[in-house]
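Weekly puzzle thread! Below is a chain. First person to post its structure in token form gets bragging rights.
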Amino acid sequence: MARIGVVVFPGSNCEYDAAAAVEQLGGSAELIFHSATSLGDLDGVILPGGFAHGDYLRPGALARFSPVMDAVAAFAAAGGPVLGICNGFQVLTEAGLLPGALQKNRGLTFLCQPTTLIVSSTRSVLTRAATLGAELVVPINHFSGAYTCDDETYASLVADDQIVLRYRDNPNGSRDDIAGVANEAGNVVGLMPHPERAMSSLLGSADGRVLLEGFVGVGAAAH
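Winning reply:
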């Protein structure tokens, strides 16, 4: 059974959703607080959505200095699977664990709606179980979710197959419709949509399952 840690910052509000999704898939979820200096022997780490430290300065800018982020960085450098969802994605970019940045949505509008994603790479711990080109309906819930990067970074993302998910109909002005990216090794992934909220067709969509199955499966294999 994969042991997945879910990091909790002051202002996180999706940690229980992420933990519940992990457990639905047969994993074991464990809340890890921002003050922790070690991850123990976890098989994977999720940075969930929310408003870490109230999004003061800019989303993720303060959370990146939390003691736990040194442990997350070391875990990622050793090849451990790390997933940042929404605010967690912002934290990973601020911490330098993923390239680029998230800026305010086009039109300065908060978005909370279902979106259709296209799987654009299966070379990551999040998309490894998905089918290339598959369309997945997964909700978004963000104000600063438009992915941006400079031209050199963008060229590297394309060349190294690091763009893992794109929006079919770009809701927020994200560059090249980017909804999620991975690091070069594919073990660190961030996305703005919430797969943990798309776990059951009774609640609108179960399309998030294939993404989290891939992530939790990596942890299970590591364990």
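Puzzle host: Confirmed. Bonus trivia for everyone else. The longest strand covers residues 111-119.
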